[in-house]
Design goal:
Elements (H helix, E strand, L loop, with lengths): L1 H20 L17 E10 L2 E10 L3 H8 L12 E7 L6 E12 L2 E15 L2 E6 L6 E13 L2 E12 L7 H33 L5 H7 L14 H4 L2
Antiparallel strand pairs: 1-2, 2-8, 3-4, 4-5, 5-6, 6-7, 7-8
Helix pairs in contact: 1-3, 2-3
């Protein structure tokens, strides 16, 4: 999906420029400690031939319909990936395809780096998404991703897999180590946000308050507090 694809772009840009300019381990102090989503069954990041692969399986504490709505809310991807500054739904030549463009911004010290990602999203069946990066419009040589959601009563089993190859050099050894650490931490952050917003939407329906989400966002509130933990915004706004 667009949000994690774009996020990986930010990880790659931040990694490359941090290592190239600083070439030191101080970067580890920049990584916040993220509270994991409700239940992580698997989380791995690997590298082969210059491409980075991510796989995560998590059980989120929210019903599948609400988790699905958050993940497929492409226009508001910045809610669960705060580095995204621009989102645009582009024309597509196929009715079943949603083409999305994301622009994300990433600060490394005093330097600002912008990452472009454009990709096509298709849904072969409900709860199963396939994402294809369009290299000529993106900061990547290639990229793909899948999402799969399954209901577990009031909870949701979620699988996400992605593979991206950047169009710039990543230093070996130290670069790969930093890259994998940051990808894991940021992935947990994104899954926390998915879970939190899904809970807000569920609470909104249960309490019959259709304007709750807009009120929360208009007030500049966030599902994740300064310690990286989920916040029950529906209760805070009453």
């Amino acid at each position: 999906m667009a949000l994690l694809i774009s996020q990986v772009g930010g990880w790659l840009a931040s990694l490359y420029n941090t290592v190239a300019r600083a070439c030191s381990l101080f970067v580890f102090s920049l990584f916040c400690s993220i509270s994991p989503a409700d239940e992580i069954e698997e989380l791995s990041v690997t590298e082969a031939d210059g491409a980075y692969s991510l796989r995560i399986i998590s059980v989120l504490d929210a019903p599948v319909g609400y988790v699905y709505n958050v993940i497929t809310d492409y226009k508001h991807a910045y809610r669960i990936n705060p580095t995204i500054t621009e989102v645009e739904i582009l024309p597509s030549d196929r009715d079943e395809v949603v083409r999305v463009r994301n622009l994300s911004e990433h600060w490394v010290g005093p330097f600002l780096f912008k990452i472009n990602w454009v990709g096509d999203i298709v849904e072969p069946r409900h709860g199963h998404l396939k994402v294809s990066t369009i290299p000529e419009f993106s900061s990547f040589e290639s990229g793909s991703a899948v999402w799969e959601l399954r209901s577990q009563g009031e909870r949701t089993w979620v699988l996400h897999e992605s593979r991206l190859k950047p169009d710039f050099f990543i230093p070996p050894v130290i670069g790969n180590h930093i890259m994998k650490k940051q990808m894991k931490e940021d992935t947990l952050d994104t899954f926390n946000r998915i879970e939190c917003y899904a809970k807000v939407m569920f609470d909104m329906d249960m309490e019959n308050e259709p304007d709750l989400m807009n009120n929360v966002l208009n007030e500049g509130k966030d599902c994740i507090n300064s310690q990286g933990k989920s916040a029950h915004l529906s209760l805070e706004t009453k």
